[in-house]
Amino acid sequence: MSEAIAKPSMSPWTPLRNNRVFLFLWIATLVSNIGTWMHDVAAGWLVTSLTDSEFVVALMQTASSLPAFFLLLPSGALADILDRRLYLLSANFGMAFVAIMLGILTLSGNVQVWSLLLLTLMMGIGTAMVMPAWQSIIPEVVSRKDLPGGIALNTMGMNIARVLGAFIAGIILAVTGPGAVFVTNAVTFSFIIVVLIRWKRKPPETALPPERLSAAVRTGLRYTKHSPALQSTIFRSIGFYFFASVMWALFPLIARELLQADEFKYAVLFGAISIGAIINAMFIPRLRARFNNDQLITGASLVFASGMIITALTQIYVVALFTLALCGSAWITVMTCAQTAAHNALPNWVRSRGIGVFLTFFMGSLAIGPAVWGGLAQLTSIPTAIYTASICLAIAAFFTQRWPVTGNETMDHTPSKHWTLPEPALKIHPGQGPVMVCIKYMVDPDAREEFLHAMEQLGKARRRDGAWEWGIMENISEPFSFQEFFLVDSWLDHLRQHERISKQDAMIQSKILDFLIKDSAPVITHYIKSK
After folding, report:
1. What is the rounded average pLDDT for all residues in the chain?
2. Nearest one of 460, 338, 484, 313 to 397, comparing CA atoms
């Protein structure tokens, strides 16, 4: 059985047992995430003591998430063209410095709302720089069949960190205050820095130089534009996260005003969300064996909407512990299904950029949504904002089913290497271009429509691999003679196409050959702009 369709293990711990690199990275990230959630708990509590504006409180989530909307694609491009390990090291050093600065300001009594928002924004920038690279190294250190388990473990680790971080932060907040929490967060970055330093990563083999940043960004956008599988994943994610962001946007207010919680009860509520997520993560492999990704996303959306509505209706602390745990369970289900679908839609050469685009919409939903729900809560009430978001979420769960993500796991993005490298008679500089490739096909008259349909699929593949123009034309003087053409920026970009063509796309090309006249073969011609 091929790796692309191998049956995943039912044990959630398989990726940790199978790969020591993933084990150490997972543990180090767990420690770092504990510090991050300690920071979030302390910052959320601190801002409610610095201002009584619901809108400003909700802006904390916006400040944390908004940088991702603008930076995830460029940071994903950097992670694709640079060494991902060194890139992650640099970003984590920067985030540790910001955490120390926030701790010093708070301990000295000089922190203000604007400085808290500014430093939270800087932490958001660091998170945006890290996310695509970290997401992209998971498929490097786990096998394809273990990928859903690896993503679930990664998300489980975040929720374990949320539980421990919330409890530890609650204790430190009650004893010393938020300043000590921020300093502790800075220390936790040292764990992942040490593991990254010791990791001996083997970069992908290529004989070609890396792309320029601007070109890499354009290629990432072009790939997304012509990848229906990745687009569907993005649409389904927006349909959940924009409305579900109401929980994180109003969480400090839900705890403090609706449930009358003190610091410790606030931390326990925070932990309840994560406990629900952790418990559910243990069962995700079995759930995925019984239901497909689309069924799981729809079901989890309805569970989340119900949990939030009951929380706002009852306003009882004990009930909220249970309903928020359900919301946490639903959140990790959607996150695991969506991230797995996104990874399965992407080959390694563009993985960070594609994940960057996916996460741009994910974090954009978490940035814009809280501003909407915080503003609605200030204009009306906290329960009204929760009811509105939850009802819209339930509607979106069914509406977004028109963009299915089930089936991405069968796609094989392994480089096929079946193209023969052209040997030009001219002396060509790698940066010379543009390049036009023309391919002539003699098509069986009975297979004309099937041929054109397959060519449309091939055209999307050409564009995903780097072509900025593609077309198929029929010879008016020679019936059933077709000319395919596509253009790329340079000879070097065309050579990259030879490296990028996947087995998935090779299957399309093989199908096209079946539609040609017997004993005929495509005739390929390359043209390049003269110097």
Report:
1. 85
2. 338
Task: Report whether 344 contacts 147 (CB < 8 A).
Answer: yes
Phi, psi of 251 (to 5 degrees): -60, -50
Q: Decide: 88 and 130 in contact? Cβ < 8 Å.
A: yes
Contact 367, 127 (CB under 8 A): no
Assigned token pair, 508: 């399309």
Look up the pTM and report it: 0.74
Same domain, 39 and 185: yes
- CATH number of the domain where residue 485 is located: 3.30.70.100
Full domain range(s) for residue 457: 435-528
- Smallest CA-to-CA distance from 353 within 4, 81, 65, 64 is with 81
pLDDT at 12: 62
5 part of a folded domain: no
Query: Under a CB-based contact definition with an 8 Å cutoff, are residues 45 and 51 in contact?
Result: no
The Cβ-side half-sphere exposure at 39, using a 13 Å CA radius, reads 32
Distance between CA atoms of residues 102 and 116, nearest Å: 7
Query: Of 278, 254, 236, which is closest to residue 370 (Cα–Cα)?
Result: 254
- Report the Cα–Cα distance between both ends of the chain, in Å, rounded: 50
Residues 143 and 266 in one domain: yes
Show the tokens assigned to 67: 């940088």
Residue with tokens 């994910």: 362
pLDDT tens per residue across span 342-351:
988 888 888 8
User: What is the domain-level CATH number for residue 51?
Assistant: 1.20.1250.20
pLDDT tens digits for range 463-475: 998 899 999 999 9
Give strand pairing partners of 117.
none
Give every CB contact of residue 143 below 8 A, 6+ residues apart in sequence: 3, 6, 18
d(CA 327, CA 317): 15
Q: Using CA atoms in the order 78, 81, 84, 85, what is the torsion angle rounded to 10 degrees? A: -110
Would you say 75 and 128 are in contact if contact means Cβ atoms under 8 Å apart? Answer: yes
Tell me, yes or no, whether 453 and 388 share the same domain. Answer: no
Q: Is there a contact between 18 and 134 (Cβ–Cβ < 8 Å)? A: no
Q: What is the token pair recorded at 365?
A: 């939903």
Number of domains observed in the structure of the chain: 2
- Does one domain contain both 404 and 458? no
Tokens found for residue 367: 């940035």
Same domain flag for 455 and 517: yes
The residue behind tokens 């495509």 is: 522
370 and 509 together in one domain: no
**53-71 pLDDT, tens digit each:** 777 777 787 787 778 778 8
Residue at 42: amino acid letter: A
Same domain, 402 and 440: no
Q: Which of 72, 429, 378, 418 is nearest to 221 (CA)?
A: 72
Question: Do 445 and 402 sit in the same domain of this protein?
Answer: no
Q: Of the residues 377, 410, 443, which one is the last residue of a structural domain?
A: 410
The answer to whether 249 and 410 have CB atoms below 8 angstroms apart is no
DSSP string, 16-81: HHH-HHHHHHHHHHHHHHHHHHHHHHHHHHHHHHH---HHHHHHHHHHHHHHHHHHHHHHHHHHHH
DSSP code, position 271: H
